[in-house]
Amino acid sequence: MPGLMQENLHDFHAFHERIIVNEPVAMSYPVTRMRRLRRTETLRRMVRETRLSRDDLILPLFVVEGRGIREPISSMPGVFRHSVDTLVSEAKRVRDAGVPGVILFGIPSEKDARGSGADAVDGIVQRAVEGIKSAEPDLCVMTDVCLCEYTDHGHCGIVEADDVRNDPSVERLAATALSHARAGADIVAPSDMMDGRVAAIRASLDQHGFDDVAILAYAAKFASAFYGPFREAAESTPQFGDRRSYQMDPPNRREALREMRLDLEEGADVLMVKPALSYLDVLADAKREFDVPLAAYHVSGEYAMIHAAAERGWIDGDRAMDEALISIKRAGADWILSYAAVEVASRLQS
Ligand code: PBG
Questions:
Q1: What is the CA radius of gyration of the chain?
Q2: What is the DSSP letter of 249?
Q3: What distance in Å separates the CA atoms of residue 195 and residue 263, rounded to the nearest whole number?
């Protein structure tokens, strides 16, 4: 306390002692009161740092063969498997809710070792893209590029001697991405985690005149237990082993940055972290490190947990869902892929 005289200094200490022993004094308690700006909803609105917008949201959709199909997925309440015709009506609902994009997952009726359905000209996703783009041209249509829904063994690549082989898989993935671009996809999103697939996809798209089709790379995709309900929905559970030889090990944070940097160097336009909630640190790291748009996938298990607890009356499902998505935005996501996209968008609208 420079400038204070000795006796004033004594008063000062006495004053503080009184506060500490909680005697009444003229001026007391905190000068800084955080609660002042939390008093009313108006004030809370005025100091809110993060806002979820409908523009942030992307809805994942599952498409199956057939007609008139809208089949519920038991572990994901409110999520359905659609045939192309009902998918197109669903796309209209998405647009009406103000959600700008969808990501498509195809479930073929036949599977084989090389995942032939993945790049078939008349494949399920290819027809779904055409259907949605002709009905809703303004909707951004993204496609998940992977083999696991199309292979009989359920792995994301080509298997030889129980090993998922990288380079032959990359070739198949590039062919798949190209077939999605030919069908009219705006963005292709490789989710397989093979090394070098972004470069191969970029080269193949450019070679065939699709230089304006963007790549959303599932760059930091972890080998997660939270994909369980998706695998039921997409019938893509591996028939042997697991995905740990290609998806990331959950404890690794620096490795995630390295994965993302590589995909960026290979030509990715948008980088994704997946799952979202258990990896918000990775998302925040990526926000500091990179200047490209970042996506986060609020995956099937994360969605299912909220619904399961809400069904039992243990939590308020709507509030928990909104809180989950805002935390993903706060951590740094520009795009949030969520099965709750339409319901959350409708709440934002009202
Ligand atoms: C395909 C793929 C998966 C998910 C998205 N793309 C499953 C997996 O890797 O096993 C999971 C999405 C979700 O759980 O919502 N490789």
A1: 25
A2: P
A3: 9
- Pick the closest to residue 183 from 142, 225, 218 (CA basis): 142
- Taking CA atoms only, the protein residue closest to ligand 1 atom 6 is 191
Closest CA to 251 of 286, 276, 227, 281: 281
Ligand 1 atom 8, closest CA? 227
Contact in structure between 260 and 236 (CB atoms under 8 Å): no
Q: What is the assigned CATH class of domain 54-349?
A: alpha beta
Ligand 1 pocket test, candidate residues 232, 236, 300, 303, most atoms within 8 A of CB: 236
Burial 262-274 (b: 16+ CB within 10 A, else e): bbbebbbbbbbbb
Provide the angle, in degrees to the nearest 10, between the axes of the packed helices 280-289 and 254-265: 50
Write the pLDDT tens digit of every residue in 237-292: 999 999 999 999 999 999 999 999 999 999 999 999 999 999 999 999 999 999 99
- 115-127 per-position pLDDT tens digit: 999 999 999 999 9
Catalytic residues: 221, 274
Contact 188, 143 (CB under 8 A): yes
Q: Which atom of ligand 1 is nearest to the CA of 156?
A: 16
Q: Which of 111, 143, 156, 230 to mutate to test the pocket of ligand 1 (most atoms within 8 A of CB)?
A: 230
Q: Residue 139 Cα, ligand 1 centroid: separation in angstroms? A: 22
Domain residues of the chain, as ranges?
A: 54-349
